[in-house]
Amino acid sequence: MDNLRIYEEDGYIHFMLRPEDLLRLRYSEEAKMPFVDFMDGWLDQMKTQVRENTMDGYRYAFEKHIRPFFSARGTTLATARPMDFQDFVNAKFAQGLSPTSIIKFHSIMHKCLKYAVALQIIPVNPSDNVMLPKRYKYRGQVYDRAQINVFLAAALHSPAEAAFVLAATYGLRRSECAGLRWSAVDLRARSMVINHTAVQSGGRIIYADNVKTKSSYRTLPLSDSLCRYLRDLRRRQEANRRRLGKQYCKTGYVCCYEDGSPLRPDYISREFERVCRRAALPRIRFHDLRHSVATILLQQGFSLKQIQEWLGHSDIATTANVYAHVPYVEKVSIAKGATPVIGL
């Protein structure tokens, strides 16, 4: 700092630095690194922190959107400013990307730069205070009990029948249906454990002994009807195993094809649409079966806390969203403790 200027004024000693000298005081030497290089290394470290399909999403966002934008700008950790990230958000919005995608991209960059702050490479997170596009909440449709029964009748003998029964009666997620194994089902104790999932990522199916959140790991009691259904399903699968012999795949999954191979999550969704069309039912998403179960439980008079634990939500606020599907008159009845409108 050859040009450091020192002077006295009003009884105080003042130090005057050039801007580049001031930057050297605020930023470490590593801050000269290009932002995209730092993020590339951070993503490699994140492999130990997030699920494989989540990591795939991070990588896609980085390679497809983040790296090209910031590489073209030559942005380093030291030169990154909030306006750079605001420009990124604005550019992606102009390209027609959804607010949900843009918010996810920004969240990934913010996590990365938060780590840079934690390492004391930079003093503040330059992606703070960015104005993000407003995310419009999806208002899903749900089936009532009569429609659920129509759906299940139409789903009989479908290869994905078991997944449909589990989703429409117990509200399991698609990944939980596809990942349920017979080893997690205890017909004697009349319970099943949700502890294994099958998720799709980039065309691959990832089977893992983990679930979406800590709260998603749960043990559910089997009702009389579901217990009977699972016993019959097991008998049918045993018959297929004997009929196919060595050609039968002994994978141990509850939701499987006739040859024992597990159902792919994307197949479950496609088959769901076909069954709904065949039954002439309103078009909804497969995940809306889960919302339907939550709504029916609420109409039965179960508390939000009970429904939260049943569905495996990590936050009761997520469960509270089912109120959006319940008619106002029924909400009033539930709030007053009146007899539920629909009985089990």
Domains (count): 2
Global Rg: 27 Å
Shape: elongated
User: Mind telling me which CATH architecture of the largest domain this is?
Assistant: Orthogonal Bundle
Number of helices: 14
Overall CATH class of the largest domain: Mainly Alpha
Can you give me a brief rundown of this structure?
The chain is mostly helical. It is built from 14 helices and seven strands.
Can you describe what's shown?
- The structure is a single chain.
- The protein has 14 helices and 7 strands.
- Strand 3 and strand 4 form a beta hairpin.
- It has 2 domains: 5-118, Tyrosine recombinase, N-terminal domain (DNA polymerase, domain 1, Orthogonal Bundle); 145-335, Intergrase catalytic core (hpI Integrase, Chain A, Orthogonal Bundle).
- Helix 2 (35-46) packs antiparallel against helix 3 (52-73).
- The protein starts with a strand and ends in a 9-residue tail after the last helix.
- It has helices at 19-26, 35-46, 52-73, 82-94, 99-118, 145-155, 161-170, 174-179, 224-244, 265-278, 288-299, 304-311, 316-320, 328-335, and strands at 5-9, 12-16, 185-186, 191-194, 197-201, 204-208, 218-221.
- It is mainly alpha-helical.
